């Protein structure tokens, strides 16, 4: 690696971590590749063979291939995967130059893993130490993500990619199919017409993130217009639907899903992670009744958000998060509901402290008048009309 850990470590502690920590042996990774573990990344040097002294638990390995200097040294899109490591684990992977990806199949070969384990002392000079200076940050961003949850949310392909792998909805394998498809050329009269003629694409099966589906309809079947309006202002019904369908046994896993989406975006550069983070956050912050009945879920939400918002670069708010004032308006609703009647005293107090913290740190104004007169736009079921 191009840089080493900035943490001064006692030799005895380092030796114990080397013996008890997990090791990632990554062979053949091209020089110049950007590779990282959790919240730290490096540029791979000529001697790199992997990472040692990794604390047991969940980790996010991420890397970007790079073109040779002759081809401009351009960096490719980031690829990542979650790994759960046990004490003294040895995970073995080799770089596949054709796929520009790591191949972990050797880790299933016990003889090969045993051989590598026996030579760890010889490999030691070529292994970079885990960046312990960012361990606290990583734990604060991922402590709600269990191994099972990460496996359930990761794509079936096992890789989280910054750019979606897409294929045409219609394959058009035959000349006849292509001839029938309208051409996208100078005959187009407008940009819109040209875009409409482009082949429709879909995400390649098995490569999509498997997030919980956030329902577009926030009200139960057969709801009256009054119930629809109520369920559009208080999203508790939709939240309970998501919890029942996806996290029935462990409702707090929704917080893990929120962390998973955030890590995919912040570290993995996956925009879909940001979009899902926004959807889950909006759902939770606008569920007034749920705040009265799910105290632990909302105490956990405040803790998760405290750490997430502390890691976002300040200029990032200007570029993305503050679009349409998403965070301030969403959190304004949350603070209004969390300090309302029937909310547990501990949750109310924690929400007030969190509000004061955000106001001081980001200078956000949560006291602006809510536009109570604004109409609530709701979607009525087919056949239902309002006079």
Automatic annotation (TrEMBL):
Keywords: mRNA processing, mRNA splicing, Spliceosome. It comes from the Eukaryota. GO terms for biological process: spliceosomal tri-snRNP complex assembly. Residues 20-155 form the AAR2 N-terminal domain. Belongs to the AAR2 family. Component of the U5 snRNP complex that is required for spliceosome assembly and for pre-mRNA splicing. This is Protein AAR2 homolog. It comes from Salarias fasciatus. The gene is aar2.
